[in-house]
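Sat 14:20. Reprocessing the chain from the morning session after the first attempt stalled halfway. Input below, unchanged.
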Amino acid sequence: MLSIILQAAPWCPPLHLGGRRIILQRPRLSPPRGRCPSTQQPGSVPPSRTGLLSYRRGCSSRYRRDHEGLPLSSRLLLFAHGAGAGSAHPWMRRWAEGLGALGTVECFDYPYIARGSRRPDPLPKLVDAHAAALAKAVAAHAPEEVVLVGKSMGSRVGCHLACQSPVDKVVCFGYPLRTPSGKLRDQVLRALTTPVLFIQGARDALCPLELLDGVRKDMQAENELLVVAAGDHSLSVASSELKRRNLMQSDVDAEILARVTAFVTRR
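Finished this time. Tokens:
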């Protein structure tokens, strides 16, 4: 079995994603002297082997490494699906399995999926359903830390919920910043105060990176961006590009998961 060695929190056990064993090593616990890691500007971070670029904005003591680590049972990750498919979709199942290394993962379906409809409910109903799923999961697990994770629409609804409910962090897999008609969904991001990680494909038409960068500059919340080079809205890289780089999609996914791990486990 091929092992991929990545940096992560010191307490994380080995995990598996895409048939590969990922060994999580202890990261450097402090940034270079005189430089805050959260002030890196676009272009200042060299790309990794898989072509992922990462940027941060804002710097706070809450992002210090948790040297002791939080027990897995004490962290809840509520995982919301996108508009086109529910929690049973293979993409959701695969990432739910990977995220399980970070805590208890709870997935749920918005009511329109349960009704067998392909048309999402209005935003207020989606937020109410998300809030109900959060309340149920918190009651069941009594976590010390809550992270809202969402794909596309689920990440947008999660941001709305984070504006009205006390959660610790938000992770957005492909935030849909722009509607197909071109309208921006940026107001909730500007109102958000919860730390957020954006994971965006470089060729995602629903979130042009130059537009997201402009919004991030005006956000109140501490925020980070991981760019998946040649990635689409679902963070998938074209097979021709993978072949050119001598990579597999699981290599890209593993590096994404490592970055999510670093973000979620920082205190």
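Residues 163 and 192 are 6 Å apart (CA to CA).
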